């Protein structure tokens, strides 16, 4: 008889077996950047290119906190992939991990950021002109830097559309908060732009293979990117020139972007500048509107515009006064604001009316309009007519980013 061999047979429970699979998946992620349980998708090349470009821009800001955050997200992704979880579950889990880290994790701040450069780089780490600006610690700032570090170390087994969903949901609110450092917001929005462009498979300009929702998101990102750039450029204006342009006691009128800040404002509504201040690095004017009181508005032409004397212009005339809200009597009723009177060649006076950013100034005889006693609905003229450019987006600094926005996805940076 053969004597029995000494020793025990190792038997793993189902939970231990799953744990071993998780451990092996994590090791594969750390070593090779992909999971053995999930084939590498075609979008991995696009993500790899983005990570390669992101590495020199973001690496100087990363420390132990980034490795710890990466360990949390990568283990969760490996676990859910091995459990055949849906992409929606993976997206939600990673978002929750980064949000929890932003509330209680170690702080990577302050970090120094240079001004946005002419190449529109993600970050300007070594500015030639202009001093760096310290980005302080806040939950929104942590969300942005945490989301970007996730992209840098992201597992290529996650489809690019899911990676984009995670990133965009993390940054969507933080980039629009007034307290957010605009140079950090610039980097986040620019990276989001690159992620969406990476979804293209047709390599056409404009792209024809993405969904309408993706195109709308990209257009929104480009608009935000352009507004941030304009705001950064406006900060470099000569303060004395700005204060002279928006002199105290002078009259100005609200434009499209002022209505975005204060929806009850009427486009073209007149107010008196009472004082100046600086908020979050931006030069502001305190404008007193008769029906709304004092409002703090950026001292930029896209928000408020000084009321300027035009050729043969006068501030007084028959039947109406400056600032009256009127509607037209002929055809569909159009709302507008009286901005003065113009003398004609026969010495008669016509009323100068500001309607909106598309129509701007139109002249009417006094018998063609009537005074509007009720406040205009905020929805009446908030958006320009479909197909019409929003000329209120002209940048004070003279940049053309907003004017060149396209509804299609452009396949170049």
Structural write-up:
This protein has 413 residues and is an alpha+beta fold. It folds into 3 domains: 14-234, no CATH class; 239-306, Roll (SH3 type barrels), CATH 2.30.30; 313-374, SH3 type barrels. Helix content is 36%, strand content 16%. It has 10 helices and 13 strands. It has helices at residues 14-32, 44-58, 64-82, 87-104, 139-153, 160-171, 182-197, 212-234, 239-245, 256-261, and strands at residues 111-113, 133-135, 251-254, 270-279, 282-289, 293-298, 304-306, 313-314, 325-328, 335-343, 349-354, 361-364, 369-371. Strands 8, 9, 10, 11, 12 and 13 form a 6-stranded antiparallel β-sheet that branches. Strands 6-5-4-3-7 form a 5-stranded antiparallel β-sheet. The protein has a two-stranded antiparallel sheet with strand order 1-2. Strand 11 (349-354) and strand 12 (361-364) form a beta hairpin. The longest helix is centred in the middle third of the chain and has 23 residues, at 212-234. The chain is elongated and about 80 Å long. It starts with 13 loop residues before the first helix and ends in a 42-residue tail after the last strand. Residues 6-12, 14-22, 28-43 and 374-413 have low confidence and may be disordered.
């Amino acid at each position: 008889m053969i004597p029995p061999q000494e020793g025990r047979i190792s038997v793993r429970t189902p939970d231990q077996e799953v744990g071993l699979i998780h451990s092996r998946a994590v090791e594969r992620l750390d070593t090779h950047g992909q999971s053995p349980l999930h084939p590498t998708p075609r979008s991995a090349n696009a993500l790899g290119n983005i990570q390669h470009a992101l590495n020199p821009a973001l690496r100087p800001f990363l420390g132990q906190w980034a490795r710890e955050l990466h360990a949390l997200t990568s283990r969760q992704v490996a676990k859910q992939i091995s459990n055949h979880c849906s992409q929606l579950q993976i997206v939600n889990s990673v978002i929750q991990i980064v949000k929890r880290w932003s509330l209680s994790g170690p702080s990577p701040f302050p970090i120094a950021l240079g001004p946005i450069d002419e190449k529109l780089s993600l970050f300007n780490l070594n500015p030639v002109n202009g001093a760096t600006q310290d980005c302080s610690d806040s939950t929104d700032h942590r969300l942005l830097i945490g989301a970007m570090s996730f992209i840098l170390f992201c597992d290529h087994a996650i489809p690019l559309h899911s990676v984009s969903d995670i990133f965009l949901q993390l940054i969507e609110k933080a980039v629009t908060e007034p307290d957010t450092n605009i140079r950090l917001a610039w980097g986040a929005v620019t990276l989001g732009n690159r992620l969406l462009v990476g979804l293209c498979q047709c390599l056409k300009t404009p792209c024809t293979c993405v969904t309408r929702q993706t195109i709308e998101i990209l257009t929104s990102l480009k608009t935000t990117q352009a507004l941030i750039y304009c705001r950064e450029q406006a900060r470099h204006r000569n303060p004395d020139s700005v204060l002279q342009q928006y002199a105290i006691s002078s009259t100005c009128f609200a434009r499209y972007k002022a209505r975005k800040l204060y929806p009850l404002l009427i486009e073209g509504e007149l107010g008196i500048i009472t004082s100046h201040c600086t908020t979050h690095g931006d030069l502001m004017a305190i404008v007193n509107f008769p029906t709304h009181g004092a409002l703090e508005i950026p001292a930029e032409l896209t928000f408020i515009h000084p009321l300027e004397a035009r050729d043969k212009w006068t501030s007084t005339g028959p039947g109406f006064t400056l600032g009256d809200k009127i509607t037209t009597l002929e055809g569909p009723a159009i709302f507008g604001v009286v901005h003065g009177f113009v003398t004609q060649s026969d010495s008669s006076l016509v009323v100068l009316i500001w309607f909106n950013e598309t129509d701007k100034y139109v002249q009417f005889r006094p018998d063609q309009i009537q005074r509007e006693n009720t406040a205009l609905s905020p929805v009446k003229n908030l958006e320009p007519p479909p197909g019409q450019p929003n000329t209120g987006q002209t940048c004070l600094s003279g940049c053309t980013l907003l004017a060149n926005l396209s509804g299609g996805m452009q396949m170049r940076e």
